[in-house]
Design goal:
This protein has helices at 20-33, 35-57, 314-318, 322-343, 345-352, 356-392, 408-435, 438-455, 461-470, 503-527, and strands spanning 79-90, 94-107, 116-122, 131-137, 141-146, 150-153, 163-170, 173-179, 186-192, 200-207, 211-217, 220-226, 229-240, 249-253, 288-292, 295-300, 303-306. The two termini are 57 Å apart. 36% of the residues lie in helices and 24% in strands. The chain is built from 10 helices and 17 strands. It is α+β, with helices and mostly antiparallel strands. Helix 4 (322-343) runs antiparallel to helix 6 (356-392), helix 4 packs antiparallel against helix 8 (438-455) and helix 7 runs antiparallel to helix 8 (438-455).
């Protein structure tokens, strides 16, 4: 008899299909099939739009800073262009060289850090015309500035020590040089005037911007913003390419409407051009000039620079609703994980997909993708709906820029807002996985994000800026659209959306929080049973 031994087949164990694409599909199916989660997302959209519309309709025009805020530069941006200018005509190519001592303060005794004294070539003497200027500043050394927004550092310099400055002109090209002794020259930079011109005024100038300070105590804000006056001495002045017999003229640029324009033909030796204290009153914004041989002493106020940013930031205002809508987004992120813990479904999920860390990462990818897409649509709709309301309320050029959907700062703010909401959803998901309790996780999100947004409007300014820089609310910096130039001192409250760091730095701070919390949650979910 033949005995047949049956062949033993390897045993087969059915395991969950936990490939990452399958995980993504499974988590997406969960999200879209739970109706109340869809309602939560829709509520976030509606709340964001309604709050943004309310914020825009209640926003009034408030001009920060002083001076000629309505003046506009070559490309229409808000500028300041009011300063004391002593000049001659340069009909063609040539140069101007001067040894500058100053600027030093007249009122107050200490000159502002961005007070300016130096040499300048300007398209004409009208406010808003293009220029190139090489200057000494008390707080920032030698600077080469042009077109109101461009600023190049030219090295350290003391306002109490003479420094040689030179500008050369070749056609529309202006080149700046500086020297500590008048012999060895260092090239600082080159720029092009906006238009090719024939004769242009070239000469010496002094500007002294407003002195500003802001303090908040017990929720009350005190602002000091007053004019200043500074003085500087110029000697060894030479102009090549100009008629050597031509007289120097003094013009108070930007003050024609105030009746402070220097008289045509007024020279240093004429009455009315004296320095305060030499029989002349300190006449506010009007410049003062005395001349002794080849030495000019020039005193003035005002500034030649980008305009002080006007509040509010229109794009950020149009997105104000995200500060409340994020609570619902955070709630959705928390529920996306805690609902499974509460019902015990998380065990089934882990049984089907034993690699628990990948489950949480898949949830993070799905929730961030959904909130990013929803946030982007909401941000675009909010911008399009609120901008006409803001313009109707008086937020118009030149005080406020005209924004369109395709502008770079606008696109950054809109896509950044979508990323902001996506990161908040991931942060909330991580907290939900750590705490496994819906109420506790949502409360924590409110404490770490919403509470700082409230506190920045009541705490002392230094502490408010610390919260903006180091807490998750730093991500809201991505909504700023108003350009801020370092060469202009400006006052802006934290609650007006002024963040001390850059837009992408702020968003990166929030991203770091989300990644760290999610990473800890992945580690914990691997170590502890469901």
């Amino acid at each position: 008899m033949t005995t047949v031994t049956p062949t033993r087949r390897p045993s087969t164990v059915v395991v969950g299909r936990d490939g990452f694409p399958q995980l993504l599909r499974a988590e997406w199916t969960k999200l879209r099939t739970v109706r109340r989660w869809g309602f939560t997302l829709l509520a976030a959209v509606l709340v964001t739009l309604l709050i943004s519309l309310f914020s825009a309709s209640s926003s009034g025009v408030e001009i920060a800073g002083g001076g000629s805020s309505a003046a506009t530069g070559p490309d229409g941006q808000s500028i300041r262009d009011d300063f004391t200018f002593v000049h001659r005509t340069l009909p063609a190519d040539g140069s101007i060289t001067a040894r500058v001592t100053g600027p030093t303060g007249v009122r107050p005794d200490r000159a502002p850090e961005w007070a300016k004294a130096g040499v300048i070539v300007k398209q004409n003497t009208q406010s808003g015309s293009d220029y190139a200027a090489l200057m000494v500043t008390p707080g920032h050394g030698v600077r080469f500035q042009s077109d109101f927004t461009h600023d190049v550092a030219g090295g350290a310099a003391s306002a109490s020590t003479p420094h040689w400055l030179r500008l050369t002109r070749k056609g529309a090209t202006i080149t700046a040089y500086a020297s500590a002794d008048g012999r060895g020259w260092k090239k600082i930079g080159t720029t092009e005037l906006a238009e090719q011109a024939g004769s242009v005024p070239v000469g010496l100038f002094v500007a002294s911007p407003n002195v500003q300070s802001m303090e908040r105590k017990f929720g009350n804000v005190s602002v000091n913003d007053g004019p200043s006056r500074s003085t500087a001495r110029f000697d060894e002045v030479t102009v090549k390419g100009s008629d050597s017999g031509a007289d120097w003229q003094r013009t108070d640029v930007g003050r024609e409407a105030e009746g402070e324009q220097g008289k045509p033909g007024q020279s240093a030796g004429e009455p009315g051009a004296g320095k305060p204290g030499a029989g002349q009153p300190d006449n506010g914004g009007q410049g003062q000039l005395t001349r002794s041989g080849g030495t000019f002493t020039l005193t003035g106020s005002g500034d030649i620079a980008p305009g002080t940013p006007v509040q509010p930031d229109l794009v950020a205002t149009s997105l104000n609703g995200t500060q409340l809508g994020l609570v619902l987004i955070a709630a959705l992120g928390v529920l996306f994980i805690t609902a499974e813990y509460r019902r015990g479904m998380i065990r089934t999920t882990f049984l089907a997909s034993p690699r628990r860390g990948r489950v949480l990462v898949a949830k993070a990818v799905v929730i961030s993708a959904v909130t990013f897409a929803t946030g982007l649509v909401t941000a675009i709709a909010s911008f399009l709906l609120t901008m006409p309301v803001l313009r109707d309320n008086g937020h118009k050029p030149p005080l406020f820029p005209e924004f369109s959907l395709t502008d770079g700062p606008v696109l950054r703010a809109l896509f950044g807002t979508a990323a902001l909401l996506a990161l908040i959803a991931v942060l909330a998901l991580g907290l939900g996985a750590l705490m496994r309790n819906t109420a506790a996780a949502i409360t924590t999100v409110v404490v770490v994000i919403v509470l700082p947004l409230i506190l920045v409007s009541v705490l002392p300014l230094g502490l408010s800026q610390w919260l903006q820089r180091l807490t998750p609310v730093a991500g809201f910096a991505v909504q700023e659209s108003t350009p801020r130039h370092h060469q202009v001192a400006s006052l802006c409250l934290p609650e007006d959306g002024c963040y001390p760091q850059g837009a992408w730095t702020g968003l990166a701070t929030l991203a770091a929080y989300a990644v760290v919390v999610l990473g800890i949650a992945v580690w914990r979910i691997r170590k502890k049973d469901a």
